[in-house]
Design brief:
96 residues; 0% strand; mainly alpha; elongated
């Protein structure tokens, strides 16, 4: 679609992200307890990247412009989130 939101694409992105992690849970990792250095910060950064994609789509719709979020950006975020979720799961089995 040239000047409209592709709600199917947006929905697939949100669903794909949530398969690996909840943005809210990523933001709350700091309070969870001991995690390897930087892991909670990386989780929060992933949540911020998720929010930024949604904000860009919202702005696209507001300005009635084409989709400014590239497939590469979505793929990179989903891939990073998948790897992060695996690393977090492993860290939780290690107790720290």
């Amino acid at each position: 679609m040239e000047h409209g939101a592709d709600f199917d694409r947006i929905g697939r992105f949100i669903d794909g992200f949530h398969r690996f992690a909840s943005p809210g849970a990523l933001r709350e990792l700091q309070a969870e307890g001991p995690l390897p250095a930087g892991l909670a910060d990386r989780g929060a950064a992933l949540a911020e990247r998720f929010d930024a994609v949604l904000a860009d789509w919202t702005e696209d719709a507001r300005r009635a412009r084409g989709d400014s979020v590239s497939d590469e950006r979505i793929a990179a975020l989903l891939n990073d989130t998948r790897h992060f979720a695996a690393e977090l799961a492993y860290a939780r089995t290690q107790g720290s």
